[in-house]
Amino acid sequence: IAFLGSIRVIHSHNRLPYYFLKRGFVDNLFLSDMFEDFIIPRITLAEFLPDVAYTYQFLVQLFQRLDQMTLPVKVPVFNDTVRQAFSEAGRGIYPDRMPEFQPEFLDARALDFLRHMVNGWGLSHGGKAYAGFLVTAFLGYANITLSYLENTYEEVPKELLEEVKGCLHKAFCILTGAHLAYCYRNQSPKEIGSLEQLHLLLKEGV
Q1: Does the pTM exceed 0.85?
Q2: Of 36, 119, 123, 190, which is least packed with CB atoms within 10 Å of its CB?
């Protein structure tokens, strides 16, 4: 099996966010099985779930910021606003209550899953200064979307803004799933039961 990065295929899938969460999980388990040199970050579920809560809270705040813009807005101005928000994202504090997960961009299964995951360890760092990594990883996915906007559109109207919000939700879900796979690989003895249930749930049907 070989991967050639210079070959690209344009394709599209209208999948639900929960599918992307499951796909991120399953793909990274598969890759770590296939390639001996596949890098698995040393993270645990207890460390990661507060990062999920923090990053989603940031996503909601980003959308509030974008909703205050006068639309349509020129793409360079829009992209600069998003990148500026990401540059400031690492200076916040972890939430001590459930983020406002948005049902208009998350299907019911993704909503239920994320709420369940955050409800326990996800709020354990509440009030502490942010020291995670998921926001930085998220910026990588966001930049793909912003580059697409730069190459395709001159302005961002209301309809396109809503599509971008949906796209960023799916990126958040696939990143969350991928890092849950790393947590599964790094599980401690006390996490075995909960992570095995997670494994069975997320690999089903993918």
Answers
A1: yes
A2: 36
